[in-house]
């Protein structure tokens, strides 16, 4: 015996009497926008793509004003055979789709004793059940939109982990060509789902995979650091001569910081060019990697100094990764990517910045923007626009990130001294 799904309670509500109240769409919602909303949330209602599209088509056959009028309910009184012709479907297929929509609480079938439909008899396909659920469906639509944004963010983080992992493995191959630990890491990375498969993973599975990818990348970076140490190579978080000569100017520069209006990056009067290069942020399935594995800014200033200049929210993320003095480029990029959606910056604005500036400068731009937004009395109304403005200034050669760091440091010191 075939399984029959129970009808949604909304489908059995009685709107049959002329004296019944007629539900209306809330606020400024109209027929077409509501039908599109239903189509978006249909999978969560157990409605397939064909039935969801049919709902949109059926809704378009009604009068738009009936969806917002308190004295009538939109309906289709055409016979089932006529509806099938209008949808371009067979009658059995149309009947199955109608039943699917009714079970989901999106339409109500009212028929005469012989199955007939007519305007005079008040029979046909009625949409009052769906309208009565408009607020509920809007909440569901908002949840799905938030999940889609989270999925975009997670795919971006997986892309970052893959790029950094490949670069770490390249470094290990140069230092220790026959390292068994590196081979084990490479073998595990080969089992990762492709970029295309990431789009088909549900949110829970995607979150789990991205956490595993992050951990494998950090394992590879730990191994690279150990091998560099034994081979006498440079370590990313070791203080260099350039850091020693830069730190003093960072904390003691007395030149006035130009405070501009909210939404515009501060203009720097000294010309300190940020690192060159701009990796493409799109993940390549062939394993090719681009982007810096190490940060010129971290080498110059040290991870502790950058940590101190970060916002409290970014510092909270970084503290969960390592002690400040042991933070790596991967950790700062990871934290910056976490702050991007929290600041209301779109993935497109972040990807554009990363492609134009390179990960190093883009990461530092987020750190600066985030820190300035946290300053008392300083309001950045549109962080996404602020980042785009920084990107444009970078392209024109007018973005001076070291000067911005000097400004952050001076304001921190002034705040501590007050």
UniProtKB/TrEMBL annotation:
Residues 9-169 form the Plasmid replication protein C N-terminal domain. Residues 14-23, 257-271 have a biased composition (Basic and acidic residues). Coiled coil: none annotated. InterPro entries: RepC_C, RepC_N. Residues 311-409 form the Plasmid replication protein C C-terminal domain. Residues 1-29, 257-287 are annotated as: Disordered. It holds the Pfam family RP-C_C. This is Replication protein-C C-terminal domain-containing protein. It comes from Paracoccus marinaquae. The lineage of its organism: Bacteria, Pseudomonadati, Pseudomonadota, Alphaproteobacteria, Rhodobacterales.
């Amino acid at each position: 015996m075939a399984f029959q799904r129970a009808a949604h309670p909304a489908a059995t509500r009685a709107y049959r009497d002329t004296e019944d109240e007629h539900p209306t769409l809330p606020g400024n919602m109209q027929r077409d926008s509501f039908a599109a909303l239903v189509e978006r949330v249909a999978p969560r209602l157990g409605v397939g793509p064909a039935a969801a599209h049919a709902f949109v088509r059926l809704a378009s056959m009604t009068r738009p004003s009936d969806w917002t009028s308190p004295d009538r309910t939109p309906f289709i009184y055409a016979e089932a055979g006529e509806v099938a012709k209008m949808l371009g479907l067979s009658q059995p297929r149309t009947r199955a789709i109608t039943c699917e929509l009714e079970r989901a609480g999106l339409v109500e079938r009212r028929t005469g004793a012989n199955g007939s439909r007519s305007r005079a008899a008040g029979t046909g396909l009625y949409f009052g059940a769906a309208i009565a659920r408009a607020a509920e469906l809007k909440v569901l639509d908002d949840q799905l939109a938030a999940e889609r944004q989270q999925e975009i963010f997670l795919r971006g983080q997986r892309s970052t982990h893959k790029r950094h992992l490949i670069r770490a493995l390249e470094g290990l191959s140069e230092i220790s060509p026959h390292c068994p630990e590196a081979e084990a890491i490479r073998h595990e990375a080969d089992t990762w789902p492709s970029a295309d498969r990431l789009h088909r993973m549900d949110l829970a599975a995607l979150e789990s995979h991205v956490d595993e990818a992050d951990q494998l990348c950090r394992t590879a970076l730990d191994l690279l650091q150990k091998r560099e140490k034994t081979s006498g190579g440079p370590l990313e978080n070791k203080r260099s001569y350039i850091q020693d000569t830069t730190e003093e100017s960072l904390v003691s520069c007395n030149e006035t910081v130009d405070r501009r209006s909210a939404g515009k990056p501060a203009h720097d009067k000294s010309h300190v060019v940020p690192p060159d290069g701009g990796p493409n942020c799109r993940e390549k399935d062939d394993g090719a990697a681009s982007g810096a594995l190490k940060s010129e800014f971290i080498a110059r200033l040290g991870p502790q100094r950058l940590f101190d200049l970060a916002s409290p929210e970014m510092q909270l993320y970084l503290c969960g990764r390592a002690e400040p003095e042991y933070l790596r480029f991967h950790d700062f990029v990871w934290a910056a990517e976490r702050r991007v959606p929290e600041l209301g910056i779109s993935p497109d604005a972040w990807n554009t910045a990363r492609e134009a500036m390179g990960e190093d400068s883009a990461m530092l731009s987020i750190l600066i923007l985030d820190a300035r937004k946290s300053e008392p009395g300083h309001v950045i109304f549109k962080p996404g626009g602020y980042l785009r403005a920084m990107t444009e200034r970078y392209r024109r050669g007018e973005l001076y990130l070291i000067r911005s760091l000097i400004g952050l440091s001076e304001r921190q010191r002034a705040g501590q001294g007050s």
